[in-house]
């Protein structure tokens, strides 16, 4: 029996894995359904569509920047399983608000006055939900898993996340918006029920007072991670990776509609291919490293990612749009001569990205004391979200300035070079620590 199969059969891992999977599924079903509906049914301007997609991403990410320090403190100072259950109960209420916004938009009622504000409110609240769940899903692994299982567990969580994103994204592109409204509420209920089976994970060190000053606690939290160069560099490299991912996800819907003249189902297909690729990369790098936590393949992986981004850009630049303004169905898109090179490039971006980022998350949970793991993940989330918000603002500014959406891809390729440099510094720090 492999380590992976063994863990999936155990209560110390399976309920957490399923809870995380359902949460990621719901996040992406709701977020994608909302963005696709607004981009394809409300606005009719590439600039407005790009701006809305970027603003939606920033709204979701902002809570990570503001509240991660408090989330990390709670996760290290309180029972992680109890926090999971509280967070999943809150998800039910959040999805009721989001479903109301989707239903109003479906009916064409008060779209600007009520539907979009309700959807954005729920999106922000889901960001808060994910902020408090995020440190736990990785920090709980060293507490429930054996040392040689942590990398495999991290890979499974990451791969499961992207499989969930895959299914959530597929459904968002193919089912009616009113069906999505019902499904997000049902999924939240299922997530809460499964979360009740996660085993207890009490605080492992002295319980310290919580610091509710979000600015001071955030600065202190990030500063405290800098003492281990490997952890600090891993955080910086992950941050640039997720900035790249954020910019790509912002681009996909308006790029599919305006550059490739393709339907929302094709936009959904892009997100699906990306999710499949990251899942493949997540599992593959674990097999290559054989359970050893190392950044050995990270610099090469992100360089490959940048090359695939450039390939994706050049295919988009040579794409011949439909003359009559009609949108290609999935079948018509696949039949287009540029479709296969485009999808292969996109898959390459995602596989390389998964291979780059998974070992870096394992650095955050294996090279710090178990009493500090949640706060280390929280510090990572603060830096990640800050970088992603900056990326979203840059994308918003470029769209507002009238720069064609396809040219935004060059920004993501440039960021891959920075990530590769950080990955190389991390590899050198890893080798220096081993001497």
From TrEMBL:
GO terms for molecular function: transmembrane transporter activity. The keyword Membrane applies. It is found in: Cell membrane. InterPro entries: MFS, MFS_trans_sf. It is a multi-pass membrane protein. GO terms for cellular component: plasma membrane. PANTHER family: MACROLIDE-EFFLUX PROTEIN, MAJOR FACILITATOR SUPERFAMILY (MFS) PROFILE DOMAIN-CONTAINING PROTEIN. This is MFS transporter. It comes from Tsuneonella aeria.
């Amino acid at each position: 029996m492999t380590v992976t199969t063994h863990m999936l059969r155990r209560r110390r891992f399976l309920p957490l894995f399923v809870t995380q999977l359902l949460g990621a599924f719901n996040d992406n079903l709701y977020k994608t359904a909302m963005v696709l509906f607004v981009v394809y049914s409300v606005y009719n301007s590439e600039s407005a569509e790009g701006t809305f997609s970027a603003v939606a991403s920033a709204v979701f990410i902002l809570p990570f920047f503001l509240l991660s320090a408090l989330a990390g403190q709670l996760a290290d100072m309180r029972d992680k399983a109890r926090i999971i259950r509280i967070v999943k109960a809150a998800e039910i209420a959040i999805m009721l608000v989001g479903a109301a916004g989707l239903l109003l938009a479906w009916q064409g009622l008060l779209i600007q006055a009520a539907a979009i504000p309700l959807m954005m409110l729920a999106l922000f609240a889901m960001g808060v939900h994910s902020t408090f769940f995020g440190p736990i899903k990785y920090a709980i692994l060293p507490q429930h898993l054996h040392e040689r299982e942590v990398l495999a567990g991290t890979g499974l969580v990451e791969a499961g996340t992207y499989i969930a994103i895959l299914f959530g994204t597929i459904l968002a592109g193919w089912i009616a918006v009113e069906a999505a409204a019902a499904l997000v509420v049902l999924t939240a209920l299922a997530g809460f029920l499964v979360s009740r089976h996660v085993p207890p994970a009490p605080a492992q060190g002295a319980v310290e007072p919580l610091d509710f000053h979000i600015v001071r606690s955030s600065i202190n939290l990030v500063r405290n991670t800098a003492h281990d160069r490997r952890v600090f560099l891993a955080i910086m490299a992950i941050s640039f990776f997720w900035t790249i991912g954020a910019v790509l996800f912002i681009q996909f819907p308006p790029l599919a509609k305006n550059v490739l003249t393709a339907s929302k189902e094709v936009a959904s297909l892009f997100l699906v291919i990306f999710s499949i690729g990251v899942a493949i990369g997540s599992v593959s790098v674990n097999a290559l490293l054989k359970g050893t936590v190392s950044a050995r393949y990270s610099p090469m992986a992100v360089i490959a990612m940048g090359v695939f981004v450039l390939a994706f850009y050049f295919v988009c630049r040579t794409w011949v749009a439909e003359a009559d303004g009609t949108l290609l169905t999935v079948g018509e898109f696949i039949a287009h001569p540029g479709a296969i090179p485009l999808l292969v490039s996109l898959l390459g971006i995602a596989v390389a990205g998964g291979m780059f980022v998974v070992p870096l998350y394992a650095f955050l949970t294996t090279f710090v004391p178990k009493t500090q793991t949640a706060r280390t993940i929280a510090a990572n989330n603060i830096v990640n979200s800050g970088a992603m918000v900056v990326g979203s603002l840059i994308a918003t500014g470029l769209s507002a300035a009238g720069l064609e959406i396809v040219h935004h891809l060059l920004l993501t390729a440039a960021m891959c070079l920075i990530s590769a440099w950080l990955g190389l510094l991390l590899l050198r720090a890893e080798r220096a620590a081993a001497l």
